[in-house]
Specification:
The complex is a heterodimer. Chain A contains 11 helices and 2 strands. By secondary structure, chain A is mainly alpha-helical. In chain A, helix 1 packs antiparallel against helix 10 and helix 3 packs antiparallel against helix 8. Chain A starts with a helix and ends in a 14-residue tail after the last helix. Chain B is mainly α. Chain B is globular, with a radius of gyration of 22 Å. The chains are: A mainly alpha, B mainly alpha. At the A-B interface, helix 4, helix 9 and helix 11 of A face helix 5, helix 6, helix 12 and helix 14 of B.
Chain lengths: 282, 355
């Protein structure tokens, strides 16, 4: 029983990390159908930013800016030319992530580095360590911020309009190019924030993002494209499923179980938990 | 007026057919006659390895190029084929005992899963049927629900990730991270022998050639047209009364079978199978190779795999780190400037000359 309970904060904090990553993906993948394989590298960039800065609270906005700007450059320089071919962007972004990973290896060395957690995060309440609690709080803050942005600001509403129907939005006078740019900036910036969070639970290496990125994509698949509440539910669900599957079977089978559960889930809800209703056919 | 009208038509058809087959025949002569004579054994072995990858690439060309299914998990099927073959090789060498690596992991009895793989027919059959079955099950579950495009790509990638973790974790069954290596003989032939390796090369090249011809035939058939139609307008095909899910599942299964066969050939040629050879990165690398070669032409897919395989060896020998930069830069350039790959460039050249 205690082992069962101990697993809970681990599962929840994995879920929180996945949520932070998936929040960024809901922007880039959800809005533009771009499978941004470079998202993992932006997580890594955020983590190294935290390593360079050393102070957790300063690192958060810095990582957001660093990763966001990287995303912005990627979108402007390359991805924007490939919107008609979303699957191609996947490969392009993967090429970018290869370059970024090698760059990190050359800049910071291949071995992992450790980012010391601040003293005020030592300890915890009962079974809840402060560092994992902090990650959860960060994820909640991220969700609230994204929600407020999407529903309470003009830019956010324009973003949603582009998600729902790009051509109609363009016809209505929305500068979709600018919205795309901004969306990519925010989405990638969130990856940077997730990267800072990840430094609290493990070492930082050039391939850091790749560990999480596959699961984060699954969150988007299970949650539904561009759906905030879907991302929240799916991230928490997947985080818990991951940690309990590891606990009940063994670590090597956990991913297979998670995969099977997702396939089974798609039998009931092929487009994820929540679906954006539209009359657009394929 | 009385001229038999069928004759010129027939003759021109025969001529086009010959003309169409000339490039293939030329490549076949180079591959089957010139290469074994001219290349030293080490280089020939490398070429055999690239050709194994080319078989996988052919399957990707079919599924992705013709069918629009971006599969990022071909490594899984390649691995199933490779591990089937490796299990057979290990069991024949152990001669009733246990494969070497099991002793290191503290396994004392042969696992039940392993036992049937002592039979070469079963092992080779499973190398192809295993991947096909998995693809049929996955394809049926996924395509029936109309899960497609990026979703499908993500799912196949997640499968590749899960497979690697499973293989690494089940060390007693699979050899863990190291996989399986140290193979000495195949059907009584010494694998270290140059003549065995030359024979293996010829087998790989012939298999690739036959699969290429078969796939091309298939693509030009009614089924092939339906496949391209599904790629370009799945809903329209459905409204016309066809079943796109069936077409896609069959295609996915074919590409999986090819990858499995390639894996089974890869093991005796290269002498190792391990999780590192079939995870997310190798699976993606092959997709990229197909993109570089040209996904819309089957020959482009094959060419891409050979070119990228050669480039990787050539550049990693010179500067290992630089290769990743180069590879990354290459994807970016191909995707933005030449989405149809080398085959597209060749086609454009040919058109320019014709005009």
């Amino acid at each position: 029983m205690p082992a069962f309970v101990n697993q809970l904060p681990i599962g929840l904090s994995i879920g929180a990390v996945l949520l932070l990553i998936a929040l960024g993906l809901t922007f880039t993948f959800g809005q533009m159908g771009v499978i941004n394989m470079a998202h993992g590298s932006f997580i890594m960039a955020g983590a190294y930013t935290a390593y360079l800065i050393g102070d957790l609270l300063l690192a958060l906005p810095a990582a957001f800016l660093v990763a966001g700007l990287m995303g912005l450059v990627l979108e402007r320089a390359a991805i924007r030319h490939l919107y008609a071919r979303p699957l191609d962007t996947l490969l392009l972004a993967w090429g970018v992530s290869l370059v970024l990973q090698q760059l990190a290896r050359d800049l910071f060395g291949a071995p992992n580095v450790q980012v010391p957690a601040p003293a005020w995060l030592a300890g915890g309440i009962g079974i809840l360590p402060y560092n994992r609690l902090f990650i959860m709080a960060l994820a909640v803050a991220g969700v609230v911020a994204v929600w407020a942005y999407l529903t309470r600001t003009g830019l956010g509403r324009r973003t949603q309009a582009v998600v729902q129907n790009r051509r109609l939005a363009a016809t209505s006078g929305i500068d979709t190019g600018r919205v795309d740019m901004l969306t990519f900036f925010i989405g990638s910036g969130l990856a940077g924030v997730a990267g800072v969070a990840v430094t609290l639970i493990g070492p930082v290496g050039p391939a850091l993002g790749e560990v999480y990125i596959v699961d984060a994509f699954l969150v988007v698949v299970a949650g539904g494209l561009g759906q905030l509440r879907g991302a929240v539910l799916a991230a928490v669900g997947l985080g818990l499923l991951n940690s309990y599957a590891e606990f009940w079977s063994d670590a090597s089978l956990a991913k297979v179980i998670v995969f099977a559960v997702i396939i089974a889930f798609l039998q009931i809800r092929p487009q994820g938990m929540f679906v954006l209703r539209s009359r657009v056919l394929t | 007026m009385n001229r038999p009208r069928g004759m010129p038509v027939l003759r021109s058809r025969v001529l086009t057919s010959i003309r169409r087959h000339v490039p293939f025949a030329a490549v076949a002569v180079v591959a089957l006659v010139a290469a074994p004579l001219l290349l030293e054994p080490f280089r020939l072995g490398l070429l055999a390895k690239y050709l194994c990858y080319a078989i996988v690439a052919l399957g990707i060309g079919l599924a992705w190029g013709k069918g629009g299914m971006l599969t990022l998990g071909q490594g899984v099927f390649f691995g199933l084929g490779g591990y089937s073959m490796a299990m057979y090789l290990k069991l024949t060498e152990a001669e009733g005992g246990l494969p070497d690596f099991m002793g290191w992991s503290g396994v004392e009895e042969l696992p039940a899963l392993w036992a049937p793989f002592a039979n070469p027919v079963f092992a080779l059959g499973m190398a192809v049927l295993g991947p096909v079955l998995l693809a049929v099950v996955l394809g049926t579950l996924v395509f029936r629900q109309r899960v497609r495009g990026a979703y499908f790509a993500i799912l196949t990638q997640a499968l590749a990730a899960a497979m690697v973790i499973l293989l690494v974790g089940q060390q007693g069954l699979t050899g863990g991270t190291n996989g399986m290596t140290n193979f000495f003989e195949l059907f009584g032939q010494d694998l270290a022998d140059d003549s065995t390796q030359r024979g293996l090369y010829l087998v790989v090249a012939s298999v690739l050639g036959l699969l290429y011809l078969g796939t091309r035939q298939l693509v030009e058939s009614r089924y092939g047209r339906l496949l391209v139609a599904v790629r370009d307008g799945e809903d329209r095909v459905r409204f016309l009364g066809y079943d796109p899910a069936l077409v896609k599942t069959v295609t996915f299964a074919l590409s999986a079978g090819m990858a499995g066969l390639a894996g089974a050939l890869f093991v005796p040629v290269v002498g190792i199978i391990s999780p590192a050879l079939l995870g997310i990165v190798p699976s993606l690398e092959l997709v990229v190779a197909v993109a570089v070669g040209g996904r819309h032409a089957l020959a482009g897919a094959v060419l891409g795999a050979v070119v990228m395989g050669y480039a990787k060896t050539a550049f990693s020998e010179q500067f290992a780190d630089g290769w990743l930069y180069l590879q990354g830069a290459l994807f970016i350039l191909v995707m933005t400037l030449a989405p149809k790959g080398i085959a597209g460039l060749v086609g454009r050249l040919r058109n320019a000359r014709a005009a």
